Every structure is written in structure tokens, then in C-alpha cells.
């Protein structure tokens, strides 16, 4: 009896892919991105924080006191999203809002610093990627993803209402 998974060519070996359509690239990129997000959220669930909050905490620990706008730039999200993430971190006593006359800064608490070492043990997925792929493979993958990202930039064209 034949293997039902191989019917209609639905199963392919990762190493045998020599060509792929644009749709194949988009589907695989979305699938891998989703897998990363789910795995990170599951790793961090026991600590009561999301992957977005973990990324924010890393950014805050890398810098000193940080303004919400700077956090938003580092995370590449809106200021509103950055504020929502910071508010959730503050509810967990991981950051505080230090208000000054001209701005409000986020300050990492000692609780967060103590908890971060333990968090990193559970959430260090990049280390797993480094174990499973060579430097060259990771570099090539990043280069290809960046090339795909650049290729999807919308073309600059005149406004439609100005066209004759």
C-alpha cells in the first residue's frame, strides 16, 4: 500500500526544493513566523508575559531609562502599542513610569532584573536556531528574507487622480 501522504506530491523533502513560487515563499514565511510566535508565547506563559512584553523587556534592559517613543522605535511598533506593552509590564511590577516635567521614562525594576535570568533560560529560542543551522545557513536565510522584504515594497507611482 502506498503512503497516503505522498499522494499528489503533497509531501516534499526540505533539501529537495530547487524552485518555489512567490506564493510558496509567502506561505512558508508566514508559517515559520507563526511557529516562532506560538513557541515563544508558550515558553513565556508560565511567567505571565507575552513575547511582545519579553521583547520590550530585552530592549529596556539593553538601554537605560527609555522614553515610550524610543521603545516603539526599537520594537518597530506604534507609540500606542508600545504604551500598551509598557502598561502591562508595569502591572506585573517589571517596569515603572518615571515622570519628569518634559517626558515620562520607563525604568526596569529590580524584580524584572532578578526574573530576567530565569526568563532567558526558557525563552532563548535563538540559541536553538543557532544549534540547528550553520552560520552560513542563517546568514543566507536572513539575506533571502531581506531580499523578499525589499521586493514587496509598494512601487512609487503618481496618484491615480492625476493620471489622464
What layout of secondary structure does this protein have?
Blueprint: H1 22-44, H2 51-62, E1 66-67, H3 68-75, H4 79-91, E2 95-99, E3 104-108, H5 110-123, H6 125-132, H7 135-151
Antiparallel strand pairs: 1-3, 2-3
Helix pairs in contact: 2-4, 3-4
Please provide a written account of the structure:
Strands 1-3-2 form a three-stranded antiparallel beta sheet. It has a domain at 41-124: Arc Repressor Mutant, subunit A, CATH 1.10.10. The chain is 58% helix and 7% strand. The longest helix is centred in the N-terminal third of the chain and has 23 residues, at 22-44. The protein is mostly helical and 164 residues long.
Keywords for this entry:
mainly alpha, three-stranded antiparallel beta sheet, 7 helices, 7% strand, flat, disordered N terminus
Radius of gyration: 21 Å
Count the DSSP helices.
7
Task: Give the H and E element order.
Answer: HHEHHEEHHH
Largest sheet: 3 strands, antiparallel
The H-level CATH homologous superfamily of the domain at 41-124, spelled out, is: Winged helix-like DNA-binding domain superfamily/Winged helix DNA-binding domain
What would CATH call the class of the domain at 41-124?
Mainly Alpha
What portion of residues is helical? 55-70%
Mean pLDDT: 83
Poorly predicted sequence stretches spanning 5 or more consecutive residues: 1-11
Supply the helix-strand structural class: mainly alpha
Separation, N- and C-terminal Cα atoms: 64 Å
Number of E-type strands: 3
Global shape: flat
CATH topology of the domain at 41-124: Arc Repressor Mutant, subunit A
CATH architecture of the domain at 41-124: Orthogonal Bundle
Q: How much of the residues is beta strand, in percent?
A: 5-15%
Strand order of the largest sheet: 1-3-2
